[in-house]
Amino acid sequence: MKRILKIIAVTLVSILVLAIVAFFGLYTYYNKKITPSKNVFTERVAYIDPDNSLLSEGFETCQDRIFDYYNPTRATYSTGKYGLKEEVFEAYDHTKYTDSGYLSVRFVINCKGQAGRYVWHESNLDLEPTTLSKNLVDDLVTITTHLKLWNPNVIRGEKVDSYMYILYRIENGKITQIIP
Fold first, then answer.
1. Residue 92 carries which DSSP code?
2. Helix pair 134-145, 80-91: axis angle to 10 deg
């Protein structure tokens, strides 16, 4: 009986050791695979290079710093999220497209509520970089740049510059979500 208990104990300890080794092996593998190496990111997420963005010429910011759109009184569209959606859906003809994916349009709203410095990124529904139809991207970027009724962010009672983004989820050419 002691011999059987000894075999069971050795087996359980061996399984435990193997599980620990497997856990740390997988942890190390995935940590190296998904964690970026040091100094990969050279700018904040809010930074949009004025030299490499659309509608930057003549667009002026009020400060040197671009704040986050949600900090603390978020920048908003003057007719609200539903008003923004209504304007987008009114201007967008989904019947011309069959693409699926995300189009993220980022831009700056200055302290006067004016928008400029537009950049965009395209990805598939798994959030992997892809290329959507040029005409679809052109249409949505144009629609986004024509949204003019922005309320600037306010920090401590002062209107400030902030970045903003609009993320379009597109399925078979139809916009199924507009975030935020």
1. -
2. 140
